[in-house]
Amino acid sequence: MSARRIREARRSGKIALVVHPSLETLASFQAVLTKNEFVAIIARDLPTALLAITQHRLDVAIISSRIQEGGDGWALAGVIHLACPEAFVCVTSATDPDIFILQAAINNGAREVYLESNPVSEIVKSILSHIDPAAQKKASEDRVQ
pTM of the predicted model, to two decimals? Predict the structure, then answer.
């Protein structure tokens, strides 16, 4: 990330971390988040994600439940929740949430669990409605006009 983009991110105060092993998924999230005035920091592995946590104050974190092996995303969500308690932390899962996934979400401070099969735009739209309900209402009013 360039120094200019970091300065812009600090001014706007909207920084999102996306951690997922797939470059295609990361690129999709980056495009949608950037369109919604976030600076998207992307990571494909745990060391890169941990470095990002130490360098930025996050507003949103979108973590895959499986980064390198099954379930390691839950631990990362817990670390982000502790490091940035004000951040909206959510986890994407390849399977429908069952009682064990919901329990992991609660125990690790994730506020939402999204299916990875959902469109990225719908996931980001849901996140925006959670962190800024007024902006979501305005966006829906703009679409009606």
Answer: 0.83
